[in-house]
Amino acid sequence: MKKLYANYIESFQGLSREIWYLSLISLINRAGTMVIPFLSLYLKKDLDFSISDVSWIFVFFGIGSVMGSWLGGKLTDIFGFYKVMTVSLFLTGICFIILQHLDSFWSFSIGILLTMSIADSFRPAIFVAIKAYSKPENQTRSIGLIRLAINAGMGVGPTVAGLIIVLYGYHLLFWIDGITCIVAILLFANLVKAPKTEIPLEETQVERPDKNAVYKDMSFWIHSAICFLFGMAFFQLFTTLPLYYDAVFKLNEFQIGIILFLNVAIIVVFEMPFLNFLEKKSIPVTKYILTSLLLLGISFVILYNNFWLGILVISIAFMTFSEMLGFPYTNKFALKRAKKGLEGSYMAMYSISFSLAHIFSPKISLGIVDVYGYQVNWLVTAGFCAMGVLLSHWLFKREQQNL
């Protein structure tokens, strides 16, 4: 027991103070993000939009995410991650407060597009910050700690939000979202100082790198395709899976919440020790990515067998361990692959891969469910994972050849 405790504590040691502060800020920011999990209900119940209108608003949401990821990467390369993170969080807070006053289809669609364009410019910047504030040997655990904070926030935020909606309605959530963004950035500005070496590229290098290098990097394109396929499968955790639990297994919202909370609980308890253990092994990053897609595919094959309630728990466990490998190690590959001075562009392309999956995953999966049923969707989703496994093997071979 003492050894387990010692190993658990060891997994958190050696990380920089700045990474701990970034994790605290991520926890506050994600715990305060209460609107997004209930956005579809708000649009349908409070604004009386049709299902078609709601689905199109989420398309604008996804497009905004893609635009924000691209813009954030470009701005990070020009101005540095510190300024981008500061401005992005502050303006996002303002946008959420304004968003509650938009009640027509087009005003809300444009509002959510602008909000996500600003909010998701934060993502490439924080990935570059991880690289700046952590040693190379600690990058995976640094990513893991921030993910742990985000998941802990995701566990708290929606639960509190549900209570607030019952007592005070939806509009208070917009204020909380906005205020927590501003509080997070005030903490960031006071606790985390910009690294002295972070000077805009144009001022420090006479010989500038090729700004289009990321688009010419074949291995990174393969990696981006892998991330897209991973997202196409994984994001069904928040779309088709809750519907499946309700339609096939007749679970109520509380029971569904317990199963989804299992995902968060496993991550919070096991991810850091798990990553600490793996970091001591001399195994290529691409093999971890391949394994994550294999586990994810298995989780959906398990769902094909709908004769026993226990398969839902087994499936979510496979999916969670896939997540614990997939997100940190795809992130690590992107950080490692990024050329000096172009980290923002590389991390933008990494973020865009998942943003595109946010757009297409619910549209395709729900379309399959509507026409062919859930079981066919699980097989198609497992097929996405199989394609990802093949691409991961190809990427591994290219890495061995230093391509």
Architecture overview:
By secondary structure, the protein is mainly α. The chain folds into two domains: 15-193, MFS general substrate transporter like domains (Growth Hormone, Chain: A, Up-down Bundle), CATH 1.20.1250.20; 214-403, Up-down Bundle (Growth Hormone, Chain: A). The protein contains 18 helices and no strands. It has helices at 2-10, 17-32, 39-46, 51-79, 81-99, 105-119, 122-133, 139-168, 171-191, 201-204, 213-216, 218-234, 240-249, 253-279, 285-303, 310-337, 343-372, 374-400. The longest helix has 30 residues, at 139-168.
List keywords for this structure.
single chain; 403 residues; mainly alpha; Growth Hormone, Chain: A; 2 domains; 81% helix
Question: Topology, please?
Answer:
Blueprint: H1 2-10, H2 17-32, H3 39-46, H4 51-79, H5 81-99, H6 105-119, H7 122-133, H8 139-168, H9 171-191, H10 201-204, H11 213-216, H12 218-234, H13 240-249, H14 253-279, H15 285-303, H16 310-337, H17 343-372, H18 374-400
Helix pairs in contact: 2-8, 2-9, 4-5, 4-6, 4-7, 4-17, 5-6, 5-7, 5-9, 7-17, 8-14, 8-16, 12-16, 12-17, 12-18, 14-16, 15-16, 15-18, 16-17, 17-18
